[in-house]
Amino acid sequence: MCAAAAAFGLLAAGVQAQQGRTRSEQRVGRAVPREGQAGQSPRLRLTSERARAFARAAREGLDYVPGEAIVRFKPEVTGDGQRRALSAVAGVSAAGARSIGDFVVVTGDEPDGYRLAERLRAQPEVDWAEPNFLARTGPKLRGHSAPLAGGVRPDATPNDPEFAGRQWNLQAIDMPRAWDIVPGGSPSLIVAIVDSGVTNGTGTITCPIWTGSSFTTADMPYAVNPDMAESRIVQGIDLVFFDENGPVIDMDGHGTHVGMTVAENTNNGMGLAGVAYNVQLMPVKVCLGFWEIAIFDGIDGIPGFPDDDAGGCPFSAIAEGIRYAVDNGATVINISLGGNSGSNLMRSALQYAVDNGAFVSMSMGNDFEDGNPTNFPASYAPSLNGAMAVSAVGRSLAKSHFSGTGTYNEIAAPGGSIRDGGSPGLVWQSTLRQLDLFLLIPRFDRYESTGFQGTSMAAPHVAGLAALLMSQGITSPSVVEQIIRQSARDLGDSGQDVEYGFGLIQPRAALFGLGIR
């Protein structure tokens, strides 16, 4: 087991206690180390069995978590009936089942998620069942990184020194003039980042880890991004690694990069800018990556290194994260994740979000040149008033070469492209400095300006715009979507098309449309 010494920020005081509260009843408590003992680590949510399941999924290229399925029972079935149905399936125990809204996550001895779901569907009490599918953050192409810098303010731009030279993306959508109307959004508005996490505290975790020839007990420091005020990171939760009393630690960098596009500190003389730089960020960690699996292998005493793509983002965690975000006050949710399998669980969670006042921005996916498969959950967007599927454009405002297309594409935003301007054509934000898999002992406390490309980078531009619109007093996600559509700059074929949706977001036009000058 790992030990931890930490100075946590404010964290939710128990996810189960928070879920289902009315917003007037929300409360935030200070994190408590495991068993209340100072110097001890929070409990790990991840188990040995589940860590091995993630490793197997990566090794075999599976689109689900082996040995897990999602079940919804028929409305009239009682708790006793549910337990009977689960116990009737060989290798399934009702004791380990966990509820997410109207759904139940179950584990079984059958590793094939499709077969397990089929066995569950055979029970008369079951309405339907499906594997616990996996989403991915997508591959990251990093540009040359540089330490976060301060400097002299260029004319007519925010005073962040890298804005003028690197953030073509914010200039392409005329953010400085949009900020003239709504400068950074409302400090009371919460945007949830459902992703690999945004680190919300400072401390050290001490764990055994494999270094190539032996296990070493290593100190792994973590810290909040210096270009993001810790006071604006609120009510974070880790749904895959630590329990609800632990810190949220981004060990990958994807979630931090996405979150900084939404809300990186702006006009602070450091680094880069964010679209809605005054709002609060809620980090909802739903993804495991290389380092989480490597750390857990060390805890379990398993020598060797995980596969580079070990981990993933279970649909069960994403759906739970969406509901958690809504129940704890988020009115904008960004999901820069995707998989190729449809899910009743995911569709239900998204409906819950828009029905309860939260706008959702989702990435279209990066597999255009690999068969252009339908991407989930983005493909649900057209049937949800208040959720949008977002494609990516590069520096020239042409479709990014990787960006998925389809009739479910609703809007485009800057996502970068190495083929459209080289490294300067990536989307640059502050994120973790080291993401090198050849590093033997990681640390999660160093940050740099780094360029990524992906529809993952495009979606938070739309989430940030939604936050600015809601800062003007809009409370309806469907109205937010309507304004973003109607104010977009048409690209490609006239009207909505498969490459650009309704066109490129135009933040100033969207905000000006409410008559505010």
Description:
- The chain has two domains: 65-132, Peptidase S8 propeptide/proteinase inhibitor I9 (Alpha-Beta Plaits); 146-197 and 226-287 and 303-512, Peptidase S8/S53 domain (Rossmann fold).
- Mean pLDDT is 88; it is low at 6-40 and 150-156.
- α2 (48-60) crosses α9 (290-300) and α8 packs parallel to α12.
- The strands form five sheets. Strands 12-13-9-15-16-17-18 form a seven-stranded parallel β-sheet, with helices on both faces. A five-stranded antiparallel β-sheet has the order 5-6-4-7-14, sandwiched between helices. Strands 1-10-11 form a three-stranded antiparallel β-sheet.
- The chain has helices at 15-18, 48-60, 79-87, 113-121, 163-166, 168-172, 175-181, 254-263, 290-300, 315-327, 344-355, 455-471, 477-487, 507-512; strands spanning 3-8, 10-12, 28-30, 64-73, 98-100, 103-107, 126-135, 146-147, 190-195, 201-210, 215-222, 237-238, 280-285, 313-314, 332-335, 359-363, 387-393, 411-414, 427-432, 447-452.
- The longest helix is centred in the C-terminal third of the chain and has 17 residues, at 455-471.
- The chain is built from 14 helices and 20 strands.
- The protein is an alpha/beta fold and 517 residues long.
